[in-house]
């Protein structure tokens, strides 16, 4: 058979093959080959640390390697983030990041030694639900009374936060922007000290996680939750939006990997985390500790983070929030 005849005979077969649907070859799921570090940018014992340890505990068997939680507090996430940057971008080191550390702080400090937007989204784990809480001596029982008091008080009211350039700080500014009131910001070194300052009548109000404020309701007034819907932990408390204030200050919590981490690694990690989130007791643990479940995969989480950077960035710019206060 001549070469020309061979080409003529093969041409129809080549055309037919080209017309067939192309099926992607399934890639094996990534698995770690050594212990995985989860870096937490806050001290041990807090809500974020507790959530990270719950996730780590459930992930160990699913990934076939132990997960080690490392607390690296400092600089609202700066210390922990720089620690992750020093690790290989191979999925064996992750950061349990928050809206504080990778949305608010980068917007308030353009001089950070890294670009927070370059970190690889792995999975959105949960959302922290925030609440507006007033001191007992302010003499208000609802948002309308609070706003009237804020507009007429001389000197003006002061609101406490759990730190400069945090969600608590930005949420207070969001409240000011939505209502037209003016208040002085007083930062504290954590949500616990902020709510205790309210119960002691040292500041007039604060915006802190519901889980922090709920145990102190006998000594304070929870005026409203800063979320789109009422929260099951305090179903009787209306949302600020219901009361005419479009203040939604939900704060994301999730896992990020170092810049350059392959997408296959992020997808495999998300699949393992999703199994943990789907366990029967995890949802109740979240609810009882003031979280709502998120469970976003890498693509949706990336989209959510872009939207959050735009939303909170606008608040930070308009309020002129900087790390200097």
TrEMBL record:
Q: Which Gene3D superfamilies match?
A: Bordetella uptake gene, domain 1 (3.40.190.150), Periplasmic binding protein-like II (3.40.190.10)
Q: Protein name, please?
A: Tripartite tricarboxylate transporter substrate binding protein
Keyword annotations for this protein, in alphabetical order, are: Signal
Entry's transmembrane regions: none
Which species does the entry assign this protein to? Siccirubricoccus deserti
State the family it belongs to: Belongs to the UPF0065 (bug) family.
> How far does the signal peptide extend, from start to end residue?
1-26
Task: Give one Pfam hit by family name.
Answer: TctC
Report the InterPro entries cross-referenced here. Answer: BUG, Bug_dom1
What is the top-level taxon of the source organism?
Bacteria
């Amino acid at each position: 058979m001549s070469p020309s005849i061979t080409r003529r005979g093969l041409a129809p077969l080549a055309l037919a093959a080209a017309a067939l649907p192309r099926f992607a070859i399934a890639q094996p799921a990534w698995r770690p080959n050594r212990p995985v570090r989860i870096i937490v940018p806050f001290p041990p014992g807090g809500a974020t640390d507790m959530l990270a340890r719950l996730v780590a505990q459930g992930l160990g068997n699913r990934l076939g390697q132990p997960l080690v939680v490392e607390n690296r507090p400092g600089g609202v996430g700066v210390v922990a983030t720089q620690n992750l940057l020093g690790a290989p971008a191979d999925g064996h080191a992750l950061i349990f990041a928050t809206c504080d550390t990778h949305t608010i702080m980068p917007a308030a400090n353009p001089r950070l030694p890294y670009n927070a937007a370059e970190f690889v989204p792995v999975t959105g784990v949960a959302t922290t639900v925030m609440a507006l809480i007033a001191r007992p001596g302010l003499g208000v029982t609802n948002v309308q009374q609070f706003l009237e008091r804020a507009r007429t008080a001389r000197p003006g009211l002061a609101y406490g936060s759990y730190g400069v350039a945090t969600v608590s700080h930005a949420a207070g500014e969001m409240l000011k922007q939505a209502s037209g009131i003016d208040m002085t910001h007083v930062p504290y070194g954590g949500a616990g000290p902020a709510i205790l300052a309210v119960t002691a009548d040292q500041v007039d109000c604060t915006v802190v996680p519901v889980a922090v404020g709920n145990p102190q309701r006998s000594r304070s007034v929870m005026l409203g939750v800063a979320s789109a819907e009422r929260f099951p932990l305090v179903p009787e408390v209306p949302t600020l939006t219901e009361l005419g204030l479009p203040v939604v200050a939900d704060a994301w919590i999730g896992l990020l990997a170092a810049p350059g981490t392959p997408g296959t690694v992020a997808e495999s990690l998300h699949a393992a985390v999703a199994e943990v989130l789907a366990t029967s007791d995890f949802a109740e643990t979240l609810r009882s500790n003031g979280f709502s479940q998120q469970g976003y995969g890498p693509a949706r989480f990336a989209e959510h983070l872009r939207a959050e950077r735009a939303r909170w960035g606008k608040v930070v710019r308009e309020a002129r929030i900087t790390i200097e206060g």
